[in-house]
Amino acid sequence: MSHFNHAASSWDSEGKIKFMGELARKAQSHLNISEKIDILDFGCGTGLFGLEFADHAKSLLGIDTSTGMLEVFDNKTKEHAHINSLNTDLENEDIDQKFDLIVSSMTFHHLDDPKSVLAKLRKLLRPNGQIAIVDLDEEDGTFHSDNAKAGVKHFGFSNTKLSNWAKELELESNITIIDTVEKNDKSYNQFLAVFKNLN
User: Is the whole-model pTM more than 0.85?
Assistant: First the structure.
């Protein structure tokens, strides 16, 4: 977490803004959003991904464990009463709210137990709600230059693993590769996994 607090003030580089904006637009093209809804951005950081959904939001709540990141998020959204943030660790704490859409980008590979977090997010969904997760497809551990410093717990996730989580949690899933990053003379895919309640 200290890594992200330290990095927060310079996080929004031109490259990151463009990259996360493109990921958000690609994610939106796979989601059916026909009215204003209540949105949760889990692991919101400075809001580069989740705030791209603001036009669809009746309310938007950004959650993160990094106070530094949330300071930047709050500064961007201070003129918007329907956008708020919450400094909490959802892996270990609970919130009592319901959402129509939960989005998360490049957060799940930092979690100790991502499947249990997905189960927790499922409980926060309203009927017919959706969870949209963007993260790294399974990789060899070279995407980040220093995995320990960056708080990396998983080297991406395979389609099989994501599908198995969905089955175990009784979620319908649709998993698509939506982007590829070229770095270190390698290609790293990003997936979009859209989960919906089966019951």
Answer: yes
Backbone angles phi, psi at 195, to 5 degrees: -115, 140
Q: In the chain, how many domains are there?
A: 1
Nearest residue to 151 via CA among 60, 64, 27: 64
Q: How far apart are CA 30 and CA 27, in angstroms?
A: 5
Place of tokens 């919906």: 196
Give the domain CATH number at 82: 3.40.50.150
- Residue-wise over 94-116: b if at least 16 C-beta within 10 A, else e? eeeeebbbbbbbbbbbbbeebbe
Q: For residue 92, count other CB atoms closer than 10 A to its CB.
A: 8
Q: Which domain holds residue 41?
A: 2-197
Q: Residue 177: is it exposed, middle or buried by C-beta count within 10 angstroms (0-12/13-18/19+)?
A: exposed
pLDDT, one tens digit for every residue, the chain (199 residues): 455 555 555 667 888 888 889 999 999 999 988 899 999 999 999 999 999 999 999 999 999 998 999 999 999 999 999 999 999 999 999 999 999 999 999 999 999 999 999 999 999 999 989 999 999 999 999 999 889 988 889 999 999 999 999 999 999 999 999 999 998 899 999 999 999 987 6
Compute how many other C-beta atoms are within 10 angstroms of the C-beta atom of residue 193.
23
